[in-house]
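Long-time lurker, finally posting.

We've been working with SAM-dependent methyltransferase (Duganella violaceipulchra) and I want a structural starting point before designing mutants. I don't trust myself to interpret raw outputs, so I'm hoping someone here can both generate the structure tokens and explain anything notable. Sequence follows.
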Amino acid sequence: MSLQNNSTDLAFLEQNAASIRNAKLHIPHLDQTVNLLNYMRIADHVATTVQQPAARIMDWGCGYGQMTWLLRRRNFDMISFDIGADDTCLPPIPLCDGLNVIRTTHPTQLPFPEQAFDAVLSCGVLEHIDECSGVAGNELKSLAEIARVLRPEGKLLIYQLPQRASWQEALVRRLKLGYTHPRRYSAAEIVGILEGKGFRVSSLRRANLVPKNLTGMPTGLRRIYSRFSLPLIVLDRYLCRIPLLNRVAGVLEIVAVKRPDAA
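Top reply, 14 upvotes:
Generated this for you. Predicted structure of SAM-dependent methyltransferase:
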């Protein structure tokens, strides 16, 4: 994406954030500039990772569609999927205008045929599967389903996966400042899980050593933080390249490829 296109992306997402605030909706991950820039960074990384024109990508657990929108802007054929009833109502915000979401109420099964996608995106989703379904083991069943609908050598792109040793999560838990993820992963653990479900991990890196999400923090503090959004994104990129220090970063980012011999 060109700088001009990125500016257009940010302008639209900021407009969407203003709509959220005006409607007094509680969608904190979409109303702060640093988060919006982070989603744009992820979309750009997807674009450099899936170098296939008009690749068909499922946005697994699409939520309000921010990644669907950003990746369509990068010329991918996006299919938005989420859990819920077919008549689930989306909020009246620009991101959701025209967003067509395929839904199912089953906690793990996907309503798609085998080898339907070139890639599947999980952005802040995998870690919530067992938590939200209330059934231990659904995470593994979901990964098996993703492998089923991916073509051989198709890619599973995982972002915002909570790292077990995250300093931020440890601090929030210790001081009881707000929500923390019940499910967190070490690099070795998630690699082992993915390999056991028919994937090979081709890339693993860390991000969010500098916090991106200040959910629960006072509104004034969040607004001040947002004024420095771009420098914070750049700083985080460099800090997360430092060995050992990056072991306490907030999240893991993984590219896993479906093995040709996977069922």
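Before you design anything, note these points.
The longest strand covers residues 150-162.
The radius of gyration is 18 Å.
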